[in-house]
Amino acid sequence: MTSLSLHFSFFLFSTLLLMSVIPPRAAASSSCTVDDRTYSTTPLVSFLQRLQSEALKTLGPSSFDPKFYVDLPLKKDLSLTEAAFWKLPRVKGIIPENYLHRFLEAYFDDAGDDMVYTEPEDFVPEPVEFLPKVFNPKVRVWALEVHSLWKNLSRRVSDNVKKYPERHTLLPLPEPVIIPGSRFKEVYYWDSYWIIRGLLVSKMYDTAKAIVNNLVWLVDAYGHVLNGARVYYANRSQPPLLSSMVMEIYKRTGDLEFVRKSLPSLMKEYTFWISGIHKVMIRDLHGHKHSLSRYYARWNKPRPESATIDVESASKFLNDSDKEAFYREVASTAETGWDFSSRWMSNSFDLSTLSTTSIVPVDLNTYLYKVELDIAFFAQQLGDIKTHEKFFKASKARQFAIRSIFWNAEMNQWLDYWIRSKDCEDVHQFEARNQNDRIFASNFIPMWNWKHASGLGENNIMVERILESFQKSGLLQPAGIVTSLSNNGQQWDFPNGWSPLQHLIIEGLSNSGSKAGWELAQDIAVRWIRTNYAAYNTTGAMHEKYDVKGCGKVGGGGEYKPQTGFGWSNGVVLALLEEFGWPFDRDIECRS
Fold it and tell me: Which residues form the signal peptide (predicted)?
């Protein structure tokens, strides 16, 4: 082993030790024990959070981005940097702005400097047979521009991260990456699925495989795919779509050896999601017990990347235990990918009522159902019949659970289930009133796999009822599918539409076996492509989210400024153009 490898191995061991979990506490309400162990943090992250807090005092809240400070790479060892920090002059407890700027210049590189540009080796300006169903010249030119954005977003971890890992919160991923863009200068888990969908349209198969290999590296190192490739994200994951990434790559390339190498990590990640604090048992009205999963971060402190915001949000709580409970809900909501949304709040307009760990989400269990189907398929392809049978059986059990716990026959939708009991129960008794009957785009995510997940099979009458329910739900807006009907200022609520939700529902409708479903899918795809095109023409950029009340409007809300780039938006547009094409005579401009 080289000295560099030894250095990194020591860093990884030290990091995992520092991030080790604190022992569980006994539940206050009964004799059972809740496995709510939390990760501790690292000395570097603790110091950067302190710097973040002091910088806010100096600079004030206007345009302040707390993530910038925990992403700063150190130029010198932490001990020297900390010593210089404590020697900075303070006036009434505040570091003067000029001293803060000098300190940052002397002791830190810029946030993002530890991710360096790398040319994707499999990028070509116009791939062979690129978007063969796109005939409109305007759309084709734009699609090639979106395709070219992969070059702008391509990065690799700098050699400094591997040489001095203790100076960086960035993790030393082994292969090149595609980042989302703007403030998101590292890999993110569920973003990567739609990035890969777009890369496959662009025939960038090696780049897509490299992304998966990096996520597999995280599973092997931490036991799960982290929310993002920073040490401070180790306490949580994001929606489990790794098996779907492997599946999409396999469908394009037929690379069974790639599947073989990935499968052990897929099974390891699956265990993370179906056991421990993520596992919830519910008994239905017929006495059947169902094993389902929820989001639950091992964290009860402010999120490092948003610590100053979380501290302010928690200020209304008077005691430490209530603050810790709130911080856990905030981090768990970040694990959902929907941070933040009224979906997770008992009061849609009050962030302090986040209750994510008490919710069994329909979309998470839809994703896990697909994980089970994917692993069963991969095992069968590899000749592992025992594993195939095990995961196929698990998929049938989850299919039954999705129908029994989430399906609402009156609304013809799948609804999240709230665990309302405050007691520590091994098995929760299903009560229909605990289904959340508010309207969210997630109520239709099972359409992504709906013939399987719903258990509806070829029941055309039920398909028609679900289509009617969706069309009457209020979710379909002039420029796409809105996330919810609650206009509360949160970014995963009205009026924002997000690329992942558009794609999941469009793909489900397209694969429904119904002509009406396919036509509706195409209609939504056209709306979404048009609004992306219009915003691109106006701003020169692809955006993280869009305001779907009108064509070409950029989304807003949430705890940070709207971002551009943007990985998953690029991927979804390319995937939709590949699926539905664009006729020569269809106008791409917004319609009045």
Answer: 1-28
The sign of the CA dihedral 512, 514, 518, 520 is: negative
Q: How far is CA 102 from CA 86, 96, 98, 99, 105, in A?
A: 14, 10, 6, 5, 5
Nearest C-alpha neighbor of 180 from the set 536, 564, 575, 531? 564
Query: Catalytic site residue 339?
Result: yes
What are 145-166's pLDDT values in tens digits?
999 999 999 999 999 999 999 9
DSSP β-bridge partners for residue 25: 34
Q: Answer whether 562's CB lies under 8 Å from 543's CB.
A: yes
Element (H, E) at 33: strand 33-34
How far apart are alpha carbons 61 and 66 in whole angstroms?
10
**pLDDT tens-digit series, residues 389-444:** 999 999 999 999 999 999 999 999 999 999 986 656 799 999 999 999 999 999 99
What are the helix (H) ranges across 38-171? Answer: 43-59, 67-70, 78-86, 97-107, 137-152, 159-163
Backbone region of residue 337 per phi and psi (left: phi > 0; alpha: psi in -120 to 50; beta: other values): left
User: 177: helix, coil or strand?
Assistant: strand
The token pair that represents 258 in the structure block: 């790639």
Q: Are strands 417-418 and 413-414 parallel, antiparallel or unpaired?
A: unpaired
Question: Please, what is the Cα angle at 180 between 112 and 360, to 5 degrees?
Answer: 120
Query: How would you write 302-369 as a 3-class SS string?
Result: CCHHHHHHHHHHHHHCCCHHHHHHHHHHHHHHHHHCCCCCHHHECCCCCHHHECHHHEECHHHHHHHH
Q: What is the residue whose two structure tokens read 């830190």?
A: 108
Residue reference for tokens 């009045």: 592
Coil vs helix vs strand at 128? coil
CA distance 60 to 83: 24
d(CA 327, CA 311): 9
Q: Which of 269, 544, 547, 578 is catalytic?
A: 544
Query: How many CB atoms neighbour CB 282 within 10 A?
Result: 22
Q: Name the active-site residue from 339, 374, 416, 578.
A: 339
The tally of CA atoms less than 13 A away on the side-chain side of residue 121 is: 9
Is position 312 annotated as part of the catalytic site?
Answer: no
pLDDT per residue as tens digits for the range 174-225:
999 999 999 999 999 999 999 999 999 999 999 999 999 999 999 999 999 9
pTM reported for the whole predicted model = 0.95
